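Shipment paperwork, digital attachment
Item: protein structure file
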Amino acid sequence: MLKVAVVGVGGISGAHIPAWDEMENAELVALCDIRPERMEQYENKRHYTDFEEMLNNEEIDILDICLPTYLHADYAVKAMERGIHVICEKPISLKEEDIDRVYETAKKNNVKFMVAQVLRFWPEYELLKEIYDTKKYGNLLSATMTRLGCYPRWSWDGWMMDEKRSGLVPFDLHIHDLDYMVYAFGMPKEVVYKYRARRPDQDFISINYDFGDFTINTEASWYATSYPFTAEFRFQFEDAVVANENGKMMIYLRDDEKIDLSAEAEGDTGDINLPKSDAYASEIKYFFDCVVNDKPVEKIDPEELRCVLNILNSL
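Attachment content:
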């Protein structure tokens, strides 16, 4: 039975904690957050407000980092230097140089490390990659990906609205779609168009990526209004349009034939208004399996992470 701890009991932890509780051969023993009230609902875990104290008092095999972005790399290094395996919420950092620092620490201490880039495990996106790889509906011709929502005023200490700590929309929202594109289609040849409308209370970006044989148009936003969270895509292949829109995963074929795959998505993501999926549990299970069976964490490639941060820092 491996012992697990979570540091950072904010919104995204509402997806991670239930996944660990349901995991066989894993026991979530401790939580750490500087806000004691965030941990009160988890009465059967030991609670800490000091990270070093938790590391000193607990025998932890795996640490799950759900902290604000600017703390990810430092806390990952602290844990791995103690021989603890680490799974960390995205992004790994705002700084490209932290990739080497984190992965070199993991190698030096013979532990596993993984950034939880959840779209790589999301059923709809996994299916899309399979369709692309197999050319089931011919070559990809064009695509649109959107990830829209409202300004995150709920974040602790306003950290998400501080560019130095969160990177704003590019690093918080757009990174999901960009990471998926690099994972599924490789490094784009060129950023052919970018536009940003940024104000003190909102942030919007529109970017077109050229992959040679096709272009992907993307949008991401924190609107100043109470716009509902929306994450959608539409991919045009030679013989079909594959769309994840309006809560449905559809494949539109020639001759008016269509396939509704919406019923295949299931699960729950917690309390921050994200689409329903079991992807959070899937990424955690994948990492746990890599730890238990001493397998390389191949699904998350550090060179792909480097490509993503390089592009985001150039916007």
